[in-house]
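SAMPLE LOG
Freezer: B-3
Tube label: C17
Construct: single chain, 138 aa
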Amino acid sequence: MVEQLFEFAGNHYILIGILLFLTVAFVINEGKRGGAAISPTNLVTLVNREGAVIVDIRDGKEFGNGHIAGAVSMPFSSFDSRLEELESFKDKPIVLVCKIGQHAGTIGRRLKARGYENVRRLAGGMGEWTASNLPVVK
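STRUCTURE (predicted):
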């Protein structure tokens, strides 16, 4: 079976190349649609230099167990009903934080559809933040 896959790839290298290119392009496009991913270090810089607003979209219990200082809690499940709370921050960078980075893209696309231009996601979410030994507030 594996030998057949290698044989196919060898005989159809142009198709395989196109497939790889389209896969990479798709992943990059999807990532940008939900906002650019930034590292924890870049998040600290963005908050200090540009006054970025950190929006934590984890549920209330996870938020209570530890969050980034100054973060606004807007759980994923009730985000749409609380969107008006972000209107005053439309001119500032908004950084979305979730548990491991999987839900932030969805919320980022919703914000961009509503006219928010400067939306970013914390790469790796709170898991990456804590792995970097950065402080959390309880």
